[in-house]
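Reviewers asked in the last cycle whether our approach scales beyond single polypeptides. To address this, we selected a multi-component target totalling 594 residues and predicted its structure end to end. The input consisted of the following lines:
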Amino acid sequence: MSRAGALALKEPPENGPAETERPAARAAPSSAAPVVAARGLSLTYAAADGPVRALADVDLTVAPGEFVSFIGPSGCGKTTLLRCVADLEQPTGGELVVNGVSAEAARLRRDYGFVFQAPALYPWRTIARNVGLPLEIFGVPRAERRERVARYLDLVQLDGFAKKYPWQLSGGMQQRASIARALCFDPKLLLMDEPFGALDEIVRDHLNAQLLTLWRKTAKTILFVTHSIPEAVYLSTRVVVMSPRPGRIIDIVDCTALGRERPLEIRETPEFLRLGQRVREGLRAGHAYDA
Amino acid sequence: MPMTPKAAVSPRGRARPVTGVVLALLAAWYLAALLGNWNGAADALARAGATPDAARIAAATMAQERPVVPAPHQVFSELSRSIVGVPLGSKRNLLTHAWVTLSATLTGFAIGALLGIALAIAIVHLRSVEASLMPWIVASQTVPILAVAPIIIVALGAAGVTGLLPKAVIAAYLCFFPVTVGMVKGLNAPDRLQRDLMRTYSASRPQVLTRLRWPAALPYLFASLKIAVAASLVGTIVAELPTGAQAGLGARLLAGSYYGQTVQIWAALIAASVLSALLVQAIGLAEAATARALGTQPAGSAR
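The resulting structure, written as structure tokens, was:
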């Protein structure tokens, strides 16, 4: 609490709840309660040529420790769904509960780490200071900040790059830094919006394998948006297949049959290919629905 | 992009075009002096009873006491006479006047820059401020400063404020505007992801300001400060003109025009522009130092 006290000077009242409940100190939600529960979730926004239905009647429950991928064509609302969970968009209908509270309350108590399509590193900060940014905002003391930044840079294999600026790193390294930034305050929920979309195949494979290892080690719940079928099947316990506008869930493919240990070669196995095929069919069905 | 030979980057290669431009300007200046003073010189020679042939007239255009366009060497000898020829602190020393102007310029610049930044921060954070204040801010800049300056000086004088401050106020009046405009743009420069990131942390507005908006605005700040510091100098000189100020480059200009001392006017003008260039240069140095501190990617390395 002394940390929160030191922090209080800098923070306005609107962040009050977050201060009293720092992420590290927070008790983990009971394993039975879903991390994300959406019922009849929809989002319609006004565009120049009339209302656009980005999400329609989405029902989804994600249990703790799951790795759920969202796949679908561009504009199917998968990113919108993720942004709703993060309280970066407000749904216009339905119910959404994150960790037992509203999405806004979950955001205010800093329940999740978000990894964007682009690294979104601040160019005027070194990699270490970028990774430490959330800790700085949460008022974590300097010594602990330094220790955690070092630990998570190590985790994403960027030790030795702490003092570099973002422009001195490759795209893949920048994205790894942004993952370390999302992880360093140890959120139980990780939201990833096409984090590897802009990277080449080889780097992507490598990061996929790393992400999977990380997920196994840390027991986090991960929601992951992608438009790559192999990536979705390889990473996930469940793949949510979505249709184009209005975005709705067509199929949910269970991939637990692949086990938790997944070497990259698993992608050549018949089981993997079968799951990929099912996702592909779902996507095709979505297009037929649209036509 | 591959750059051809070292000529493009080496200091010697860069010096050549710079020298060329300076020489061309000097040549144009001499030509202007020749043409501008021709009639006057011809008349003067005729009055003196000499036969005005072209060569003598041409020579005379370069050495008139009150030329329409003083020749460069006349201005530079006036400059050296009034800078090193008279003791510092004397009323006839140009540096004394430059210092009077500079001190008001810097005071006004400081006031104007701070005001400009404060307004920009308010505008970015409060929509109502933008709606209610922005039209007035724009309107303030459409009023000719030459008309407003005497009013401000007289009003402040009546309130007992004299000396440096009224001039600084006018300088600030001119220089807050580019800072406000530049900083509003700069503070809004962070892209959507950079802002969303702060939102996912539930960062407070002051945190977003100090950790995101402010550093992102710095390049814009320096660009507008360069404009502002030059505007501040102009404002100070304008403030010195209509008020019968006893000292300052503006006073020097005014005295020169009272007595038809064109060479003195030009010397003061040159001094003002050199001062202005030095001020802009100083901001540029501060900008470079800030960029280094922020680890900005050197411009050259992008190629």
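Residues 1-8 of chain B have pLDDT under 50 and may be disordered. We regard this as preliminary and will revisit it once experimental data from Aim 1 are available.
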